[in-house]
Amino acid sequence: MIDSATVSRRFRGRTPDAHSIRHADLGEADGSASENGSGTTRVVALVEGSRLQAAGFAALLAGFSPEITVLAVPRDIAGCRREIDRDRPDIAILNVRTVRPELVRLLRYLQERGDQVRPVMLAESLDPQCVGRVLGLGLGGLLSADLEPADLLNALRVLRAGRMILDPAVVPYLVNGACDMNGVQGRAPATTPAGLTSAELEILRLAAEGLGNDEIAQRLAISTSTLKRNLRLIVGKLPARDRTSAVVAAVRAGLI
Questions:
Q1: Tens digit of pLDDT per residue, the chain (256 long)?
Q2: Which of 111, 108, 109, 93 has the alpha carbon at shortest distance from 46?
Q3: Are 74 and 44 in contact (CB under 8 A)?
Q4: Do 8 and 72 fall into the same domain?
Q5: Domain of 135: which CATH number?
Q6: What is the spatial distance between Cα 136 and Cα 159, in angstroms, rounded to a whole number?
Q7: What is the spatial distance between Cα 107 and Cα 139, in angstroms, rounded to a whole number?
Q8: Are 201 and 256 in contact (CB under 8 A)?
Q9: What is the signed CA dihedral for 27, 84, 91, 76, rounded to 10 degrees?
């Protein structure tokens, strides 16, 4: 990991762009990332906050793993677009306070470019009415900014593998109709999936309410291992990638 002394040494004497921290300002993360990022996940991370907050987030990412190469940490949306155009990263982390028109325009711009940049949004606050619209603009992931560092690293791995990651807390917004379901990314079943039992539909309904596996198992008076086995069957029937995407698929199909 990178301690405060390391960060201080890397920035001493530098006068980088006040609105963006570049790879050159970060230096090498204890030899973990090469300059060209070969074999690593190349990241541009938007951090809407002070320069100190941006530097802290940059240091956190750079110290995560040899898998991560931090190319730049811009502090505004316009700067983020410039850095993405310049560096062509694998993933763009958008650590934003809320969804607003400038962010939507950036996502639409990335979607229209049609390249391989996968945007993931970390939101401090999120208007549920915007969830569907944002996901419909090619967002690869939507997560709470209040997540553990290890969960963020796992999310980056999921995105790099070409899959979508969605915070379970977002699912109730989709279920209760607070956002436009037509905007949600992912394949919707052409017809109602066959083979889901009433018990499996009940599991999906409880998962859509945001209950964890242990809570669902307790509610249904079954063991956690039985619940997990049922979830695997549900994921296979829809088909879906995981529990969260199974709930989204069920909602879109009108099953719950």
A1: 334 333 333 333 333 455 666 654 554 444 333 344 457 899 999 999 888 999 999 888 888 888 889 999 999 999 999 999 999 999 999 998 878 889 989 998 998 887 789 999 998 776 666 676 677 677 888 888 888 888 888 888 888 887 778 787 776 666 665 555 444 433 444 344 558 898 999 999 888 877 778 989 999 999 999 999 999 999 888 877 778 778 877 876 778 7
A2: 93
A3: yes
A4: yes
A5: 3.40.50.2300
A6: 16
A7: 7
A8: yes
A9: 80
Whether residue 237 sits in one domain with residue 119: no
User: What proportions of the chain, in percent to the nearest 5, are helix, strand and coil?
Assistant: 50, 15, 40
Shared-domain flag, residues 50 and 143 = yes
Tokens of 1: 């990991």
pTM: 0.65
Amino acid type, 239: P
Amino acid identity of residue 105, one-letter, is R
SS3 20: strand
Domain end: 154, 182, 210, which one?
A: 182
92 φ, ψ to 5°? -115, 115
Q: CA–CA separation, 160 vs 20, rounded Å?
A: 24
Beta strands per DSSP E along 146-236: 165-166
Which residue among 182, 217, 242 closes a domain? 182
Asked if residues 144 and 169 have their Cβ atoms less than 8 Å apart, the reply is: yes
Q: Which residues contact 183 (CB under 8 A, 6 or more apart)?
A: 131, 132, 133, 134, 135, 136, 137
- Which residue shows structure tokens 């109602």? 192
Q: What is the model's pLDDT at position 31?
A: 38
For residue 35, what pLDDT is reported?
42
Q: Judge contact between 155 and 143, C-beta under 8 A.
A: yes
